Amino acid sequence: MPNILTFVPRLAVMLAITTPLLAGAQQQQSKRSQFVITKGKDTVAVELFSRDGNALTSEIYQTNGPRTQYTMDLKPDSSISHVEFTRVTQNNQSIGISIFFLDSTVKAQMSAQGQTEQLEFSSRKAIPMLAVSFALCEQIVHASHLGVGQSATYTAIRLGAGDTTQLAVTRFHKDSVSFVMQGAQLKAVLGTKGEIVGGVHLGQGWTITRKP
User: Fold this and answer.
1) Fewer CB in 10 Å around end: N or C, the chain?
2) pLDDT tens-digit profile of 15-39?
């Protein structure tokens, strides 16, 4: 799969807040959590993310230049139905992928530098994956519904590389889960509600810490 994406510009939306109740609801929706990725004493990336009803939104700022933003539409079972992903590289080039996960088919549209390509392939167990996003890893944990000692294998669409590979997710302890795919092995520690509270990227030597 090529490493190209449709750039989707943001739309500014003006909302008239007429009651304290509505204002409180908007404040609640905008509340964010974050993951901080470090290597030794150096910060590698910061991810700001939020879940609002049936959507997961994330912004990732890497200290070596790239900036990433995505929005994912979620199904009632916590699986992902649609992804809009944008990355701005060190050279200020916009790339990314738009993907729809249907019952047995994945449809993707990718474009960059004025070129657009559409792809479609059959898969019942396809998911997006981005090793620098522990908010996405957390969503995969929620969607997999794994019990202790259980594993699941997916076709992972790697958003950063723009290709596909096999991803094995294993709940090897009640408070621990691993993600293993070509070129990456991640381990995460889970809290009492199944949220990721920390983790490591073994290949890169990264430590991931969740902050409120």
Assistant:
1) C
2) 233 334 334 444 445 578 999 999 9
